[in-house]
């Protein structure tokens, strides 16, 4: 009886009358007859692919099965005892993973709710998985919503899973062999299956983006770090290279985000991402949306590149990841320094960072602060700072924080005298000092009182000048990617010129040079004439011998006089073949 009524209802829909069911059901019925030539009176058994076909489908979906496993297990636990069965199908509708009650396996297998069954609409008729694949949306196909008589007892709720490029990759289905008559009985199943699909997309994006920045979003602060709603992955220039479906909806109303720059979608740029890392209070991590709304953001820094097999790295050189790992691209001295910085970061040890101007001391200090997971960050330029400025910087600081003292050699003597006492009064504030001088000279030459020096220089980290770094090429690429939307390229001769320069102004000068070059280049390609002239060395090279003579060939003194470091003097002596008088 029910069957006859079902066939009549399908005939009415074909004649153009609406059935009162969900519109995707009517549309699917029409496709079944008009497109696939199906007959609703037939009772075809479930379609099961062959062993060999199943192995191929399963192998191809292996990555998805792995990404989905923990979400599926969580979902199955939630519905335990309610006779639900979970199916994960690939984008063609073939079931590649299955969670169900062992006692029901025979019955489930017969109904096609099992591994290897093919639920594509052109074979199985109107069904949850099939309609989900066609519409790309979550659906519930309940009892006689199904087209074929064989399936009209089932209730199937299916949600699509998209890969990070926005392609349909799989379908997650939760089904019942027997269910209550009202379709609304499956509303809870619908919310469970869509939430699980969202988590699978998130897990998949995270697994694919270990070496990229990931920005996760939540509308409520309490779920931001534990169960965010949406996420994008970004390249170094801040362009979207992956997104979950929810992020595509949230940020562009469903239009693909791939290739879009984050600053065109949100009120932030790629340089702001460190401010959204977990060490910041959640309520400070608010991101403005293009439509005037706002969400909470959580940025996750790229992890360190994985080692090539057979290429061991000494434990001392290993930087596990996080923001510190983004500061260098394989320079051995930097790798050693960053590894030490990583281990010192969570401790309260005061740090002194030394190096020529523009070598990245301030940037390193910020990165150490982020890796330390301390709360507040206060920065103070020591030049011109008086006791009041110091007191003001420290007042109101509660809980563990970082006090950055920039160019500590410029501290006025009276400020230097009270600083040690102020630090003692704020034991939670970990000082990080930067200096352009060799650390030990600060005390030896009386620039800092010994007590203050010892209070600040718990560990000394010396940043190498740019001309000594072996990752100059990597740095050029990295800085270039951050400019003009990451589209600028260098001609080989322009690159060779940059690689050959001495860079007395270090990373700051490199950044400025690239800014000028990007502005002057008429196309997206920077050529030799677009590069500003290299700054002249502070001391002309022909003066070196005279300076050395004047300093009695004391390298350290000559280096100070020339405003360069000792290794530069040694390098020039070798290059010019100079010899100390006997
Ligand atoms: N590892 C890095 N990668 C990319 N850019 C960097 C890096 N380190 C520093 N920079 C950039 O170089 C410039 C100078 O860096 P920073 O201010 O940290 O140098 P500094 O050593 O503290 O300089 P100063 O001694 O003059 O205060 C900044 O624009 C910074 O963003």
From TrEMBL:
<dbReference type="InterPro" id="IPR002197">
    <property type="entry name" value="HTH_Fis"/>
</dbReference>
<dbReference type="InterPro" id="IPR029016">
    <property type="entry name" value="GAF-like_dom_sf"/>
</dbReference>
<dbReference type="InterPro" id="IPR002078">
    <property type="entry name" value="Sigma_54_int"/>
</dbReference>
<keyword id="KW-0804">Transcription</keyword>
<dbReference type="Pfam" id="PF00158">
    <property type="entry name" value="Sigma54_activat"/>
</dbReference>
<dbReference type="InterPro" id="IPR027417">
    <property type="entry name" value="P-loop_NTPase"/>
</dbReference>
<keyword id="KW-0805">Transcription regulation</keyword>
<dbReference type="InterPro" id="IPR009057">
    <property type="entry name" value="Homeodomain-like_sf"/>
</dbReference>
<dbReference type="Pfam" id="PF02954">
    <property type="entry name" value="HTH_8"/>
</dbReference>
<dbReference type="InterPro" id="IPR058031">
    <property type="entry name" value="AAA_lid_NorR"/>
</dbReference>
<dbReference type="InterPro" id="IPR003593">
    <property type="entry name" value="AAA+_ATPase"/>
</dbReference>
<dbReference type="InterPro" id="IPR025662">
    <property type="entry name" value="Sigma_54_int_dom_ATP-bd_1"/>
</dbReference>
<keyword id="KW-0902">Two-component regulatory system</keyword>
<keyword id="KW-0547">Nucleotide-binding</keyword>
<dbReference type="Pfam" id="PF25601">
    <property type="entry name" value="AAA_lid_14"/>
</dbReference>
<keyword id="KW-0067">ATP-binding</keyword>
<keyword id="KW-0614">Plasmid</keyword>
<dbReference type="InterPro" id="IPR003018">
    <property type="entry name" value="GAF"/>
</dbReference>
<dbReference type="Pfam" id="PF01590">
    <property type="entry name" value="GAF"/>
</dbReference>
<protein>
    <submittedName>
        <fullName>GAF domain-containing protein</fullName>
    </submittedName>
</protein>
<feature type="domain" description="Sigma-54 factor interaction">
    <location>
        <begin position="327"/>
        <end position="519"/>
    </location>
</feature>
<keyword id="KW-0238">DNA-binding</keyword>
């Amino acid at each position: 009886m029910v069957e006859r009524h079902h066939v009549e209802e399908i005939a009415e829909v074909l004649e153009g009358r609406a059935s009162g069911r969900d519109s995707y059901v009517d549309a699917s019925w029409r496709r079944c007859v008009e497109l696939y030539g199906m007959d609703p009176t037939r009772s075809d058994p479930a379609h099961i692919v062959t062993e060999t076909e199943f192995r191929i489908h399963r192998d191809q979906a292996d990555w998805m099965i792995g990404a989905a496993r923990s979400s599926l297990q969580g979902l199955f636990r939630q519905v335990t005892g309610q006779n639900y069965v979970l199916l994960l199908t690939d984008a063609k509708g073939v079931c590649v993973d299955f969670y169900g009650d062992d006692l029901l396996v025979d019955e489930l297998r017969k109904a096609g709710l099992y591994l290897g069954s093919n639920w594509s609409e052109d074979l199985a008729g109107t069904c949850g998985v099939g309609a989900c694949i066609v519409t790309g949306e979550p659906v519930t196909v309940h009892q006689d919503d199904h087209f074929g008589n064989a399936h009209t007892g089932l209730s199937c709720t299916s949600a699509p899973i998209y890969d990070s490029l926005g392609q349909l990759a799989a379908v997650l289905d939760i089904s019942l062999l027997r269910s209550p008559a009202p379709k609304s009985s499956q509303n809870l199943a619908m919310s469970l299956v869509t939430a699980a699909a969202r988590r699978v997309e998130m897990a998949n994006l995270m697994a694919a983006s270990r070496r990229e920045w990931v920005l996760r979003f939540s509308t409520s602060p309490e779920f931001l770090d534990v169960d965010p709603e949406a996420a994008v992955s970004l390249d170094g220039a801040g362009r979207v290279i992956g997104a979950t479906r929810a992020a595509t909806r949230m940020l562009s109303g469903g239009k693909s985000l791939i290739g879009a720059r984050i600053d065109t979608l949100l009120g932030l740029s790629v340089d702001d991402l460190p401010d959204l890392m977990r060490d910041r209070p959640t309520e400070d991590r608010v991101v403005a949306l293009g439509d005037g709304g706002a969400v909470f953001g959580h940025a996750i820094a790229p992890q360190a590149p994985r080692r090539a097999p057979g290429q061991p790295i000494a434990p001392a050189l290993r930087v596990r990841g996080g923001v510190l790992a983004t500061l260098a691209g394989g320079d051995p001295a930097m790798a050693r320094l960053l590894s030490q910085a990583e281990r010192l970061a969570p401790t309260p040890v005061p740090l002194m960072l030394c190096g020529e101007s523009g070598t990245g001391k301030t940037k390193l200090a910020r990165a150490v602060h982020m890796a330390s997971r301390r709360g507040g960050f206060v920065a103070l330029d020591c030049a011109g700072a008086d006791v009041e400025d110091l007191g003001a910087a420290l007042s109101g600081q509660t809980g563990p924080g970082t006090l950055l003292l920039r160019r500590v050699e410029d501290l006025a003597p009276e400020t230097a005298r009270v600083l040690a006492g102020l630090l003692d009064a704020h034991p939670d504030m970990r000082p990080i000092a930067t200096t352009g001088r060799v650390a030990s000279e600060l005390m030896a030459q009386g620039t800092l009182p010994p007590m203050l020096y010892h209070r600040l220089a718990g560990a000394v980290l010396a940043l190498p000048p740019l001309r000594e770094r072996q990752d100059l090429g990597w740095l050029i690429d990295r800085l270039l990617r951050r400019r003009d939307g990451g589209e600028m390229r260098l001609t080989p001769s322009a690159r060779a010129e940059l690689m050959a320069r001495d860079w007395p102004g270090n990373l700051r000068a490199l950044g400025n040079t690239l800014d000028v070059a990007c502005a002057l280049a008429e196309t997206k390609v920077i050529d030799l004439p677009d590069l500003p002239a290299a700054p002249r060395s502070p001391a002309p090279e022909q003066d070196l011998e005279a300076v050395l003579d004047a300093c009695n060939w004391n390298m350290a003194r000559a280096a100070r006089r020339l405003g360069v470091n000792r290794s530069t003097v040694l390098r020039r002596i070798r290059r010019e073949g100079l010899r100390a008088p006997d």
